[in-house]
Amino acid sequence: MARVEAGPPPDATKAVLSKESAVMSLLAQNGTSPWVMFLIVAAIVLAVVFIVFIAIFINFFRLWIQSVMTGARITLLDLIGMSFRRVKPAVIVRSKIMAVQAGLGENQGITSKTLEAHYLAGGNVPLVIRALIAASKAKIALDFKLATAIDLAGRNVLESVQTSVYPKVIDCPAKGSTRSSLDAVAKDGIQLKVKARVTVRANLERLIGGATEETIVARVGEGIVSAIGSADNHAVVLENPDLISKAVLARRLDAQTAFEIVSIDIADIDVGDNIGARLQADQAEADTRVARAKAEGRRAMAVAEEREKIALIEESRAKLVEAEAEVPRAMAEAFRSGRLGIMDYYKLRNVQADTDMRKAIAIVDAPPAQ
Question: Which of 67, 272, 342, 354 is positioned for an S-S bond with 72, CB 3.0–4.6 A?
């Protein structure tokens, strides 16, 4: 199979050839040889290249001189490559110079390539270098990889190193909180209002993934409330506030946090309300209400039962009246049948009259009701 080579279209080739022929004819008319023209074109190209090189050299000359004079070992080609990779050469050069001047060499992984990689990842290169310098001066173990990881995690690595050198004081409760103090109740029912200050320093190894200040404040508050609640008497806590600090520190509240608790100091402790007495009073009031409700229930049941008995009495009276109504009928029937005579009737009436007289006498002689 024949090989087909790509080339310019026929029309373009003819145009180029026509232009070359025109140039050659012009040179022939002027008496100039093609080699002289080639040298002129080559000189122009070299001049353009030289001008571009001079412009680049002038642009990066100052940074390159600083790198050479300080031993940062960043070449001119590296500076040009940074501009193509959209990396600010000034940031990398100055950061590398700071590291070299502070005694942090490439043996710790600080090279121009690693600095460029951290810059392209969105990290703050000068801040990382300053943090490494501060850690080195303070004899704190912090390598470049850990520092860049902390910076990319969104934490201020320099502030973390400074917190390791100069411990930070955290108020508990935190400033701006809705509550001005931590309220706890001892076993005797007395409320204590406590304000504490927690001194912490950063734990660089647990900065990534470790809990923040809010967790420390919450844990310390929980520990203070628990320590006061376990005290038998509030006076003991008032006499020895360090009992709270010792009890809280013994619980290792800084586990899995980005800080290490140095000390817990009780800044203020005041006596609040007698919560135990209030609770007892509330309980007594509740018991009284329950007893009243039960008594009212029993009274209602007694009233209902009394009314039921009255109804039964009325029913019995009605039956009595009904039975008494049958007596005249029975007497009339007895008269008609001859079983009851007139003398028997008078005797019965005498007995009834005697009974009524005795009742009247009993009512008159009865003592008056008190």
Answer: 67
